[in-house]
Amino acid sequence: MIRVLLVDDQPLIRSGFRALLALEDDIEVVAEAADGEEGLELAREHLPDIALMDIQMPVVDGIEATRRIAADPALSGVHVVILTNYGMDEYVFDALRAGAAGFLVKDIVPDDFLHAVRVAARGDALLAPSITRKLIDRYVSQPLEADAGAGLEELTGREREAVALVARGLSNDEIADRMVISPMTAKTHVNRAMTKLHARDRAQLVVLAYESGLVTPRAS
User: Fold this and answer.
1) What is the pTM assigned to this prediction?
2) C-alpha angle with apex 152: 147 to 154, nearest 5 degrees?
3) Which phi and psi (to 5°) does residue 124 adopt?
4) Deepest of 157, 188, 190, 212, by most Cβ within 10 A of its Cβ?
């Protein structure tokens, strides 16, 4: 059973997502919150698998709530998926750096939304195509950070290749096909890279890959 926490200050949005999720046998909404502070408290109380988090909320916004969840060892199993609108691209990078496992746009179709919840529950990065494009565009116009490549030298060649493919949005199965290895081996390469780079999840691997120059926007 996938346990979901809904955090959004709009009751209509929460009720819509709850109604959709309630139809699924393998998904349960365990709690709802109207702001980030309440969401953090409920995350600690219920330990959900997924926290669907709005960005713009009163008291504590979604980015700060995500940062606090990611920093709490007791909440290491909680994957935060940001709910956003197309016009909010300025928040994408900050939320990924804060520890978000992915992004969904609020006008997503129901089947894609349900699939996304299941993907995020498995621990895979979840970036809508439009969000990925905005993330890449961000790196076209800014220089690399000074220490962005720290840790890359610890990766093996195959691990670097796997990270680059993660950054291009490929799943473990797709990485396995591209590298001509088994899905389990692909997952191992990704997990070892996450450990060496101290990345919380695959979404942060995407950030690190672009920050370090391992993947360049024009080549992706």
Assistant:
1) 0.69
2) 125
3) -80, 145
4) 190
